[in-house]
Amino acid sequence: MDLAVNKRAPFDYETLETYEAGIQLYGHEVKSVRARHAGIAGAFVIIRGGEAWLVNAAIPPYQAKNAPPGYDPVRSRKLLLHARELKELIGKSAQKGLTLIPLGLYTRNARIKLAFALARRKKSRDQRENIREREEERDIRRALRE
Description:
The chain has helices at about 10, 25-35, 85-95, 125-145, and strands at about 1-5, 15-25, 45-50, 50-55, 75-80, 100-110, 110-120. The chain is α+β, with helices and mostly antiparallel strands. The chain starts with a strand and ends with a helix.
């Protein structure tokens, strides 16, 4: 079940490989994510100190009045990955032009997981090409219905 989706990712990035990671959250953040209050648009994944972190993802408190004092909804959150996956990501993300972007938050066996991808930014001409193809397919479908 998708809890949050990064709708801009397929338009802005060409995904090369996808990964799955657990995410370290507070209890009220888990409730908030399950209530679909999370936002991952504009977020990204970085490798710092041999650990993966989700940066710039907005997860507001489940109940604003009961939030802990000084709670930051856009704090960095640690991602839980196997050591071999981290080593692989460190090597691949160091390549020029590649970045790690979140694709979506979902549940698996009552745990909240983050799907993220190793991606390369699309050029604006590629984006225009995608728009053109989508419009052509739409026109073909319209013509077949008539």
